[in-house]
Specification:
Elements lengths: L2 E11 L5 H12 L2 E6 L5 E8 H11 L7 E10 L7 E4 L1
Parallel strand pairs: 2-5
Antiparallel strand pairs: 1-3, 1-4, 2-3
């Protein structure tokens, strides 16, 4: 099956609540590659690659996020495949 790449913005209370760690853990459980980083505006930016159905499950999970997060919105768009080899937290 073809692998796809999505750019995702998660808006809400998603910093200082372990959101990036939980996101990395979830991506690894699902076998997805990519990266997650905090944005200066208080939101989180994610690039993720993998099977489209699996990414759908990942995006659904993002609406819940980490236990202390409060996700208001998840914005995602299909983008150009890069070929990440793992999933990393980027500072």
């Amino acid at each position: 099956m073809n692998k796809v790449h999505y750019n995702i913005q998660v808006i809400g209370k998603v910093q200082n609540v372990w959101f990036r760690k939980y996101t990395k853990d979830k991506a690894e459980v699902l076998g997805l590659n990519g990266m997650v980083r905090n944005k200066t505006d208080g939101n989180v930016y994610i690039e993720v690659e993998g099977n489209e159905n699996t990414i759908d499950d990942f995006i659904k999970w993002l609406y819940k996020g980490s236990p202390k997060s409060n996700v208001e919105e998840v914005i995602y768009e299909l983008s150009k495949f890069i070929g990440f080899e793992s999933f990393e937290i980027v500072d």
